[in-house]
TrEMBL record:
The nitrogen atoms of the two glycine residues in the GGXR motif define the oxyanion hole, and stabilize the oxyanion that forms during the nucleophilic attack by the catalytic serine during substrate cleavage. Lipolytic acyl hydrolase (LAH). One of its GO terms (molecular function) is hydrolase activity. The lineage of its organism: Eukaryota, Viridiplantae, Streptophyta, Embryophyta, Tracheophyta. It comes from Acacia crassicarpa (northern wattle). The chain crosses the membrane at residues 101-122. Residues 67-266 form the PNPLA domain. This is Patatin. Belongs to the patatin family. GO terms for biological process: lipid catabolic process. Residues 418-437 are annotated as: Disordered. InterPro entries: Acyl_Trfase/lysoPLipase, PNPLA_dom.
Amino acid sequence: MAALSNIDSTFEVDKLTYEIFSILENKFLFGYNEPKNSKTVVANSVQISQEDAKSAKHNTGKVRILCIDGTGATDGILAAKSLVHLEACLRRKSGNPNAHIAAYFDVVAGSGVGGVLAALLFTRGRDGFPMFTAEEALKFLVENRRKIFRSKPGIFRRVIRASSSLSASKVEKLFRKVFGESTLKDTLKPVLIPCYDLITRAPFLFSRADALELDGYDFKMRDVCVATSADPVSVGPVEMKSMDGRTKIVAVDGGIAMNNPTTAAITHVLNNKHEFPFCNSVSDLLVLSLGNGESEFNTVEPKLSTSGLVKIAGEGASDMVDQAVSMAFVECGTGNYVRIQSNGVMAKKGESGKTTSDVVAAAEEMLGQKSVESVLFKGKRVVENTNADKLELFGGELIKEEERRKTSILPTVVLKHASPSPRTSSATTLSTLSSSC
């Protein structure tokens, strides 16, 4: 494409359009870097204020983030039911019977079972669309809940499973059948899925953005799902390597370090100017965070089981993240950040020891519960809207943002895409503009 500076002067171009594309040309084609803390964007001695850039037709919009907690009381069924409800809402309000979750979110982060859901809903299938609809993902969890979340008693296994042993496990075979040879590069949108690496003694975040930059951070999706859902009590740690064999991790459940990945997702977006160039604060975000029900613990017993302690730690961390994120969004209005979680009353019905039908019924009831919200410096409160009501309202906001992008010049998201050529290095990674992704 010829540079805009070479356009014939007789060619009529709207001044604002010319300025905008001059900015994009310099920023994305020639590596122009915006000065820190600048209130204006400068390109070729032309200045356009942020106020002008965000006015009416040229509003840069909001980045849409989906975050899904780890197991909780329902083994992911509450989150999956929430997504089924949301997808139905999106299809009804958009008039598109084939609308899917991945089309209405720009980033997804999932931990544990949330990571499995993220992988199912955002990995590209052979037809170019997501492998699973929300309804299909719920069915997958219902049918395979016992395989993925084995609740056998036992101590934390210190013997690391070799790759040959991993390939023989039922859960690995299950994920192999679903994802085949797909890797992080084959996801439709930015995906963030955590686990805890015992080698570095630190959280490890599987990231599509990192995978597109370096093969040393690209992993097979089946391995990602095994890693993020590897219960340290019943399954033990799993060993895996990146596509080029250079990065090795020994992983356990992502819920141990990051049961609620919302802060990781927000941080990723705010610090990733290549893919989200105009996102500067939480006011530029729309965030949906899905919990999976609060577990019921017997406080009379003098000693909790190891698995019980792991759950307490994970769910406690989730609540702390929710409180912190709510505080960050306090000035943006409730519509920018929505949290779906049970209020604790029905948690006992959804415990993982119950039958799958009990868990599904409990999740359905949780959607009908009055919602719980974190209040700045005041803990939590029960509000009049139900969880289902909040999903309906949030679905409306997603539709509005999608419609806005159809008439906007400035791109809200500039996704990185992998070249269809053989994956040999980061040189095969391309960046393409997208205002509707």
